[in-house]
Amino acid sequence: MNIWMDQLKVLQIENMLTIASVVISAIALIVSIAVAWSNRKTLNVNISKDLTVVEAGTAFFADNNSEPASYDDALLLTMEVVNPSPKDIAFFDLRAFNPTTNINVNFLTRRSTALQHRTLPLWMAVDPDNEKDPKLTELNIPDANHGIFKANSFTRFSILIFPGESSEKLGFSFKVAMHAKFRKDPFAITSRKRFKFHGVIYDISSWKQSLPQSKPSEQKST
């Protein structure tokens, strides 16, 4: 009888050890999944659905010690990126383009400006016709067409684009250092097609018509 009791105790101990081993393995798996989930690369990207028409002369570089350096008629979009992950994420191939021809369209970065303007703030007149109480807002343009979205950060870029007068469509996109599993950039002009991208296509067929028309000069009677 004692032999059977001893064997039963041994079996109970073995079962407890087996259960403990399974529980420990399950906990380790849950912890590893949680760590992998918290360390995953992810971005929340918001690109403005509408463009703002910027009249010539209302966007300019200036500070208290320099004359304003203004730009021609342009279109303005904003992009906001939240990187909630604990890792920096690189972006590259930031571009504006004509989606019909896939030819690049000029847009403003710090690197593309004249050397003497690169450290100056870029301003835009919010109400350019109000000479008595002019209001300005500062535009945060990117340094270049590539850069870093810092870990646990929020980034807002103002993209000032100079399309042709006859342009009817405008594309804007950029890629990030995350491999795309399925969707590829259909407008990619480099070999970097397998990276995740964000982009939008705008209808700008009437953008020039929305600019203020020049006022006729006042004629004095004689």
TrEMBL record:
Domain of life: Bacteria
TM annotation in the entry: 16-37
Claim: Transmembrane helix is one of the keywords in the record: yes
Keywords, in A-Z order: Membrane, Transmembrane, Transmembrane helix
Protein name per UniProt: Uncharacterized protein
Species, as recorded: Sporosarcina newyorkensis 2681
Lineage, uppermost ranks: Bacteria, Bacillati, Bacillota, Bacilli, Bacillales
